[in-house]
Amino acid sequence: MLRQIRISMLIFLLLLAACGGSDEDDGAANAEGAPFRVAIVMPSSTTDIAWSQSMYDSLTTVQSEMGGEDALKIAFSEGMFRVTDASAAIRDYAAEGYDLVIAHGAQYGNSVFEVASDFTETSFAWGTSSDTGADRGIENVFAYGAVANEGGYVNGVVAAMLSTNDVIGVIGPVAGDAKLYIDGFVRGVTDVKPDAQVNVSYTGSFSDTTLAAEAAHVHIQAGADVLTGSAQQVVGAIGVANENGVAWLGTQSDQISLGPNVVVTNQIYNWANVISDMIAKIETGELGGTAYKLTFENDGLRLEFNENIEIADEVKEAARAAIEDIKSGVVDPVLLEEDDE
Amino acid sequence: MLTGRRRIEDQFVYGIARPTGGHRAVNFRLNAPYVQMYGIVKRFPGVLACDHVDFDVRRGELHALLGENGAGKSTLMRILYGLYQPEEGRILRDGAEVTIHSPTDAIRQGIGMIHQHFMLVDTLTVTENVALGLKSSREPLLDLDRVEAGIRELSEAYGLQIDPRAPVWTLSVGERQRVEIMKALYRGAAMLILDEPTAVLTPQEVEELFVTLGYMKENGYSLVLISHKLQEILSISDRITVLRSGRLVGTVPTKDMTRQELARMMVGRDVMLERDRDDEIDVGEVRLRLEDVKAVDVTGQPALRGVSLSVQAGEILGVAGISGNGQRELAEVIAGLRPMTGGSVEMDGTPITDWSTARRTEAGLAYIPEERMHDGIVRDFAVSENLVLQEHTSDKFSHGIFLAFDYIARYSRQLVQDFYIKTPDIRTMTRNLSGGNIQRLILARELSRRPKVLVAAQPTRGIDIGAIEYIYQQLLEQRDTGMATLLISEDLDELLALCDRIAVIYEGQIMDVLERDKTSAEELGLLMAGVHPERQ
Amino acid sequence: MFDELFTISTLVGILHSCVRLATPYLFASLGETFGQRSGVLNLGVDGIMLMGAFFAFYVVFEGHNLWVGLLAAIAVGILMGLLKAFVSVTMQSLQGISGIGLYLFGLGLSSLLFKTLIGSVEGVSGFRQLAIPFLSDIPGIGHILFNHNALVYLAYLMVPVSWFVINRTTLGLKIRAVGHNPEAADTLGVSVNGVRYTTMMIGGALAAVAGASLSIGLQNVFQENMTNGLGFIAVALVYFGSWRTVGVLGGSLLFSLVNALQLWVQALAIPVPSEIAVMMPYIMTIVVLAFTARQIQKPAALARSYERGE
Ligand SMILES: Nc1ncnc2c1ncn2[C@@H]1O[C@H](COP(=O)(O)OP(=O)(O)O)[C@@H](O)[C@H]1O
Ligand SMILES: [Mg+2]
Fold first, then answer.
1. Of chain C's two ends, which shows fewer C-beta atoms within 10 Å, N or C?
2. CA nearest to C188 within chain B
3. C23 Cβ under 8 Å from any chain A Cβ
4. Could you say which architecture CATH assigns to the domain B282-364+455-536?
């Protein structure tokens, strides 16, 4: 008996260590003049160099604009790839009285609406979506998403101009996901070089870095000299691109640190404006109902060039022209279907 | 002592080690004690397993340790082998006091032990089993060739037939035992303890074992043989030590002893085990008939491959065989506990193949199962409850749905008295009874119903000689009143003592059915191994 | 469309991918084989891999030699193995549960250390492709087998080494005996727990090297949970290979081959739905496991702790 207890305690300690350090929230009550409290539940980590990190980085940007921790308090739950876990976390944050609970994943939809109808005084945000639940009579949910095909298109244009083999490799996560980005990308390539070959392969996972790395090898061996890809798994692929000196075009977050010599451009998701706007609305008592979209037009999407490597002016020029064309509506890379990262 | 110890440690590497003191008889005085134990006391919760026991073994001697089950034989030897620590007492080796904390210590003192349950790794070969735990001459690499050569040499010297390269799982029980002996010899044991080594062997294998033990004795080994088979002990040992209830009854030279005297020492009173050979067998009509019975075992493998047998009224038919050849399935099929895949069973001329167990019981079938703790009783029921277990719904024991407690109590007390069931009370939990008393309880329950047919599977296995004697008497008495008995046993002495005819089962088939008076243990043993003597 | 798959260069490419992909599986499942042969089931392999991946990466990131990084991973792996041994051998806790505990511990601790010590995903320069002179010039085979980084070669070297240790050394004999009949081994003076501690340390070291083969060999980055459950597949591969080193090698190669195949099928735009393609390795694993499920080779004392009875 005693032994069983000791063992249980030991295992418990192991588990504690496992969970410790991923949450940093405190349950302080929301008094007058107290900071605005936002919580975010995300499928991967704040350092995934992709989807989750783009939101976290934007939050910290807003935080420093607003005046630091005293003005905006951020709590987060990472690694919530299981919807049941995420659902519980969303409910916990709502119950603890957070002002805004962000459910940062398309798969969290049902959970958000369920919790939102129980906590009508709390504001929620759901990405990636344009559905605020208004048709179901829910008024406290914001929706947000990125028009990723815009950046995809521009990256496609860049890829077409960089490629000498006219073979380009794309590494996707799960088929159907990242579809907007990849469709836009293919459009961009073919608008410049109609005969170029774009090979798309999916790993079947958002986080299988090993397979993504091997996919990069495969594309390179199949002749690709420009690569792009989406989701947090691409870290492995960028490592391989870097080792082989093959150009990489990034999306979602800044990926230059991983391939200082090969990452040419990054489409960056900048959620700062969206967050600031939501906070402003909440403070006037408007708890939801707006659907946001990141575009080049509203500065939600940005295309950044790697300053450390030399890029031909004509490439930069073509990219800028493509962005302007998108903004002005001359080019419409949109096959618009909703609900995509 | 130190030098002796060092010597054995030196040998604790690959290569054959000889028994300390030299390999040949000339090198030592034959009568010198090798190991002496004085005043050994060992308690287990609620039992005094060894109560100031003295014991000694000489060089070149085979010393038998005799006693009923639970007498403390295994415990005493496990203490010597370092598996248990005694509470009191001293152990001397070659006259010098030693302490033995573990089997490793025991091996260092030249003491080896063959356990009742073999300690072998099935998946490894014979050589690997022998080499396990030894230092290699090429550490950290194995040197199996050298071990194998050593095994061959020892095989030769002591008549231990084994293939060093065979994986242990392919070996028969007898061969496994030889591997165990080999392990001890190879480690330089000068003394070998064998805990009931013959219980698992066929008569032929027993003979081979005894030949080996004879060679070892000649070469100066000290041997301790634990057994409760009197005949065996009388035929092979030099001295006999008898234990009863943890106490030493005495140590006597074998040549001065008879079976009767030994049995008296063991049990504490006169016992009667032989059947009166002159009795008239008064067999009647066939009560139980099996025709081409087929059944599968728990894993779905065929266990009975067409068994045909018949038992007449007033007859005991024995079923001999090495365990696992279909005996269990045979008993269960007759009792109605296992579905048949073919054939038929008749009782008194009526087919009962499709009958439930309850209906068979009602029609006069009684069954003493092999696993008595498991199948024969409900451990957590009172003695009285177990005594009426099968018939509790009959009018005798119940009024409507209520049990007739007064009657059950009176009835139980009577049975407890008639069948000498030793229990504090009829309300005692059955689990607290000894094995022999549980068997008496089952016998009381089954026989008090005056059954027409009795199927008894290993009814005397693991119980003391006093209880065995009583069971024999009961079986014979019931036989005389016309009961037909099917007695399944692995003990040939028992079968030869009790049965009128003996059937031998091998791999689910009846090899032959022999008249008791026209057969011998040797013939039965060969049949049990699947060999027809005349066809050899 | 399919003929593209059967050109020489594609086949060479597929096999080259396969050989490389098998690396982490080989290290991890060979390590697990040691443990299981001695009767200890370690489901915490993934956690140990993450710790190994992190420490190897961190040491290299701090500017040290790659081999120093590898040694750091080995040291951490041994410590993790000791922890597992303490919990399941000494404390005799249920092996399955304590393995999951160890996995969560490794996952949590490697993430925490990554966040506090590094903070963002960074790259390092890891083991480079090391073409073996002459051998790598052999057409086809040369590229498939002899054009990899040092850790890939090391992984394949570990196959005969592990086989040799298990089958030809006294330690190996003890491991096999303890995994099958610890009581018998104990009566011959073999320290059951000692052997199990040893195999846990060996297994831990190999699992950690498996992790390092990702972070400083194949990908040259560290990311939280970057193993993505690879360690659990490694455990399954031990069953798959029915506890034999050659079986583990076969299983790792087969699993990697199917993975390589699906990547190539997609990259060459061969019209197989990608959902099917990505499921292929798992379907295969299940099918083969179903056929190899009954094995007499299975250590009889697997996942059972040992206590000397008196
Ligand atoms: N490990 C044990 N724990 C508790 N009681 C035991 C143990 N071993 C033996 N005993 C008890 O000690 C007594 C002697 O047992 P044992 O030496 O096995 O007898 P034998 O070998 O003569 O049949 C029995 O009453 C038995 O129940
Ligand atoms: Mg005994």
1. C
2. B133
3. no
4. 3-Layer(aba) Sandwich (3.40)
Q: Within this chain, do residues A174 and A128 fall inside the same structural domain, yes or no?
A: no
pLDDT at residue number A178:
82
| pLDDT at residue B282, rounded to an integer | 63
pLDDT of A24: 45
How many A from CA of B243 to the centre of ligand 1? 13
Cβ separation A45–C264 shorter than 8 A = no
Q: Is B453 exposed, middle or buried (0-12, 13-18, 19+ CB in 10 A)?
A: buried
The answer to whether residues A231 and A275 belong to one domain is no
DSSP string, chain C: -GGGGGSHHHHHHHHHHHHHHHHHHHHHHHHHHHHHHTT---TTHHHHHHHHHHHHHHHHHTT--HHHHHHHHHHHHHHHHHHHHIIIIIS---HHHHHHHHHHHHHHHHHHHIIIII-S--B---PPEEEPTTGGGSTTHHHHHHEEEHHHHHHHHHHHHHHHHHHHBHHHHHHHHHHH-HHHHHHTT--HHHHHHHHHHHHHHHHHHHHHHIIIIIS-B--TTTTTTHHHHHHHHHHHTTT-HHHHHHHHHHHHHHHHHHHHHHHTT-SS-HHHHHHHHHHHHHHHHHHH---TTS-TTTT-------
Residues of chain B where predicted confidence (pLDDT) is lower than 50: 1-28, 277-278, 536
Residue B51 CA to chain centroid, in angstroms? 25
User: C278 CB near a chain A CB, below 8 Å?
Assistant: yes
- Chain C: list its partners (3+ Cβ pairs within 8 Å): A, B
DSSP state, residue B78: H
Q: Are B120 and C181 inside 8 Å of each other by CB?
A: yes
The two three-digit tokens of residue A199, written as one number: 């090979």
* d(C-alpha A1, C-alpha B50), whole Å: 31
Q: How far apart are CA A253 and CA A270, in angstroms?
A: 9
Mutation for testing the C interface, residue in B79, B100, B121, B129 having most C CBs under 10 Å = B121
CB contact under 8 Å between C169 and B142, yes or no, is yes
More confident residue, C281 or B111: B111
* Residue A16, pLDDT above cutoff 80: no
With an 8 Å Cβ cutoff, are C219 and A239 in contact?
yes
Does residue A15 belong to any structural domain of this protein?
no
Q: Which of B40, B41, B43, B44 to mutate to test the pocket of ligand 1 (most atoms within 8 A of CB)?
A: B44
CA distance C81 to C207: 9
Which range, A195-204, B229-238, C63-72, C234-243, has the best average confidence (pLDDT)? C63-72
- Mean pLDDT value across chain A: 86
Chain C contact for B141 (CB, 8 A cutoff): yes
Kindly tell me if the per-residue pLDDT of A31 is higher than 60: no
Q: Hey, is the C-beta of B378 within 8 angstroms of any chain C C-beta?
A: no
Please name the chains neighbouring A, where neighbouring means 3+ C-beta pairs under 8 angstroms: C
Q: Domains in chain C, start-ordered, CATH in brackets? A: 2-119+145-295 (1.10.3470)
Enter the tokens of residue A68.
């630091």
Query: Could you tell me if the CB of B67 is within 6 A of ligand 1?
Result: yes
pTM: 0.77
Tell me the shortest Cα–Cα distance from C224 to chain A, in angstroms.
7
Is B283 or C168 the better-scoring residue by pLDDT?
A: C168
Same domain flag for A223 and A95 = no
CATH topology of domain B2-27+59-87+99-267: Rossmann fold (3.40.50)
* Atom 3 (ligand 1) nearest CA: B44
Domain count, chain A: 2
| Subunit contact C170:B140, Cβ cutoff 8 A | yes
B135 touches chain C (CB under 8 A): yes
**pLDDT of amino acid B71:** 85
